[in-house]
Amino acid sequence: MPIRKIILANPRGFCAGVVRAIEVVEQALDLLPPPIYVFHEIVHNSHVVGRLSGRGVVFVNCLEEVPDGSICIFSAHGVSPAVRRLAERKQLQVVDATCPLVTKVHLEAIRFTREGYSLVLIGHPGHDEVDGTMGEAPMHLVSSVQDVETLQVSNPDKVVFLTQTTLSLDDTAQIVEALRARYPRLTSPPKDDICYATQNRQNAVKEVARHVDLMLVVGSSNSSNSQRLTEAAQAAGVPAYLVNDETGIRSEWLEQAEVVGVTAGASAPEEIVLQVVDRLKSSRAVEVEGLELEDERVQFAIPQELVQIAAH
After folding, report:
1. Rounded to an integer, what is the distance from CA 252 to the centroid of its chain?
2. How far does Cα 169 stand from its chain's mean position?
3. What is the distance between the alpha carbons of residues 278 and 205, in angstroms, rounded to a whole number?
4. By the 8 A CB rule, do 14 and 219 touch?
5. Which residues are within 8 A (CB) of 39 and not within 5 positions of it... i.e. 6 or more apart?
6. Cα-flanking dihedrals φ and ψ of residue 161, to 5°?
7. Rounded to the nearest 5°, which phi and psi values hold at 43?
8. Alpha-carbon distance 57 to 130, whole Å?
9. C-alpha 154: how far from its chain's center?
10. Residue 1 — very low, low, confident or very high, per pLDDT cuts 50/70/90?
11. Chain segment 101-145, per-residue pLDDT in tens
12. CA 204 – CA 210 distance, rounded (Å)
């Protein structure tokens, strides 16, 4: 069955935090002498990391790998205070590319701890963002409703939940419901922690899923928000697959698909999306349609420390 239409979800791909993080690294390459070290992948996409590595960026998972006094960029996912203290001891010239929306969650953790709350973080263990947030204050990590059932906190009458910014809206809602059943006086963060881009992309996927036979999500396997997009499409009853690029598409997926939806995680480059579309277009007769739900105009400023380091 040949594909007759491709529907592109919009918004898709890069969010403002990812754009800012990549710009930080690219400007550092232009302004500062090599080598440029980056703590963790700047964003979770193998194509972005590979391209920057080709320009001489050295990605490390441990600050001990960075020579004392070197330039080091913190990734968009944020770091813990312990990492910042180690960077100070090593006299690193730090440029912080943490997404401002992740920083917001860190500041909430500090404030609620000072106010005597027991903190519960909804997130995935081992994720860079979760590791950074949990370093800010004592807190409990839950990833499922089952985790909530065995949760024990020191102050059950004063509990607040925070969330990893790239989670599924639906899954998080179920966990919050379970938390509220266990702790009726549960406090919510003043503003939803799941970032605007994650919400917009999930909403777009749900809408596109109503019109397609198959959904392809462009993103790397270690990208949390890309995995959540895939799950959102599957939950809507559509076969959905996460592909790093066009080489990941399997022909058997397409056999029963007349209309294919395509979206991309917040760290996936648009050129990879276009390569996926080209792979799907078996002939010029295939119609390509965009389905736009939200016009994103969010921008984040480049960190001042990059400008200051370059000036010296």
Report:
1. 29
2. 13
3. 20
4. no
5. 60, 61, 63, 66, 72, 73, 74, 75, 79, 83
6. -110, 145
7. -140, 160
8. 24
9. 31
10. low
11. 999 999 999 999 999 999 999 999 999 999 999 999 999 999 999
12. 10
- Give the Cβ contact number of residue 263 at 10 Å: 31
Between CA 124 and CA 299 the distance in angstroms is 27
- Is the pLDDT score of 298 beyond 80? no
Supply the pLDDT for residue 155.
95
Supply the pLDDT for residue 54. Answer: 95
pLDDT at 270 exceeding the cut of 90: yes
Burial class from Cβ neighbours inside 10 Å (0-12, 13-18, 19+) for residue 204 reads buried
Query: Stretch 274-296: mean pLDDT, rounded?
Result: 82
Percentage with pLDDT > 90 across the chain:
84
Distance CA 193, CA 164 (A): 7
What is the dihedral sign for C-alpha 221, 226, 231, 234? negative
| Mean per-residue pLDDT of the chain | 94
Which amino acids are annotated catalytic?
129
User: Are 228 and 167 contacting, i.e. CB atoms less than 8 angstroms apart?
Assistant: yes
Where does residue 308 rank: exposed (0-12), middle (13-18), buried (19+ CB within 10 A)? exposed
Tokens of 260: 């294919």
Quick one: pLDDT band at residue 5, thresholds 50, 70, 90?
very high
